[in-house]
Amino acid sequence: MSKRVAVVTGSNKGIGFAIVRALCKNFDGDVVLTARNPELGKQAVSDLEKENLHPKFHQLDIDDHNSVVRIRDFLKENYGGLDILVNNAGIAYKQASTVPFAEQAEVSTKTNFFNTLNVCQVLFPLLRPHARVVNLSSYGSQMALSKCSNEYKAKFTDPNLSMDELKSIIKKFVDLAKDNKHQQAGFPDSAYGMSKIGVTVMSIIQQRELDKKGCQDIVVNACCPGYVATEMTSYKGTLTVDQGAETPVYCALLPANIDSPRGLFIREKKVSEWKA
């Protein structure tokens, strides 16, 4: 039987780095640490080696489709499949950012939603029975949902919403943001929040699609790591990166053949209702 393997995107620092650390201690297989910059990735591996932990490294830039294909080929060739995928890579503009909102909307949704979805589309064919997928979302997705119009609240919580419909709504938000008409159309004024609504709803849809295909115990969940002190939060968070890794790692190591949580939103290792 091929060796088991876990991949964590965007994991040379912050929560991703802590997730790799925890998986190295608790997962019975290889853990692949990924980074856009190979030097930073290899340095992160070296730092964990000093803790007597032994992750592998592979370059991955989720904004580069060819890079995603390369890691798929590496996994296929060396492992013949994939057992854990943690989609941690993401972007967030600082509150004080002077980048125009239209650009923030386009870039945030492109990386956090569209390109995370692309990673899934490329790597999901490798998922073995009992695989676990963890999509890092945010409490910000729930906050953004609460600020949507009733029409969009209903759409984002519709259990029959398709992936194509979700992609179309997120694209509509970006297009409206270019004319500063997103709020009057019923969207919140948060590029990050909208990108993470995409991630949460994407996860719900992915579970439904996998179940329809009859996949054997493949479980997808979205989760919120909490308010973690990282570069992304300007180190204002109340949790350490290791505390922030706890919920994603809980989702990554869910036991075989569980009924729940499946296709849900998890906060503090508990199901948090996705509702308007």
Walk me through the structure.
It is built from 9 helices and 8 strands. The protein has 276 residues and is α/β, with parallel strands linked by helices. Helix 1 (14-26) links the parallel strand 1 and strand 2 (30-35). The longest helix has 23 residues, at 101-123. The model has no long low-confidence stretch (mean pLDDT 96).
Give a quick precis of the structure.
This protein has 276 residues and is of the alpha/beta class. The chain contains nine helices and eight strands.
Distance between the termini: 45 Å
**Main structural class:** alpha/beta
Rounded to an integer, what's the Rg over CA atoms?
Answer: 18 Å
Query: What's the helix count?
Result: 9
Mean pLDDT: 96
Portion in strands: 5-15%
Q: Which H/E pattern describes the elements?
A: EHEHEHEHEHHHHEHEE
Number of strands: 8
* Low confidence ranges: none
| Shape call | globular
Largest sheet: 8 strands, mixed
Q: How are the strands ordered across the major sheet? A: 3-2-1-4-5-6-7-8
Kindly state the percentage of residues in helix: 40-55%
Helix and strand topology:
Blueprint: E1 5-8, H1 14-26, E2 30-35, H2 38-49, E3 56-59, H3 65-79, E4 82-87, H4 101-123, E5 127-136, H5 139-146, H6 150-156, H7 163-178, H8 191-212, E6 219-224, H9 241-252, E7 265-267, E8 270-271
Parallel strand pairs: 1-2, 1-4, 2-3, 4-5, 5-6, 6-7
Antiparallel strand pairs: 7-8
What attributes characterize this protein structure?
alpha/beta; globular; 9 helices
